[in-house]
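Continuing the batch. This is chain 6 of the set; chains 1 through 5 are on the previous pages. Same settings as before, nothing changed between runs. Recording input and output for traceability.
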Amino acid sequence: MSLEKRSLIDELSSFNSGGFLDLGHPLLNRMAESFTKAAGIGAIQAVSREAYFTAVESGSGSSTSENGASKKHHHFPDLRGENNRKSVEALVKSTGKESMQWGLAAGVYSGLTYGLKEARGVHDWKNSALAGAITGAALALTSEDHSHEQVVQCAMTGAAISTAANLLTGIF
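Output for chain 6:
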């Protein structure tokens, strides 16, 4: 089909079959596609959460608790800027950071599972456990105040979740 005759539907359906990025190697393609999709989801999640908490605070009529202390519902506390421009800048910065974290997790996990499958010749729970542990540790290291215990806990959580997901695949 010629380029002039392709419709938007044709373009969108081609994304599912061959991916929308071609970086020359299946590993890079898989990591970039996972990163991009998860980063988009992370951005939507961050903006939705902030919109929800902003609506709840405006509906309650105040952003302080009974003892006068400010409530900390917002994941991004800098959103209360001096003016709208500062608030928008804080939202964009915060959403970008969260998008990067989601994308990092998806890209690292996807790349590791693909690489381990290619190296070992099999995709099993061991690949999932190792990829989940490394991804969890990497994600913990992106937080501002990470500790050794937090990194280990996130690695163990990542390994447990990805192993369970691998073992439960096909059951439901």
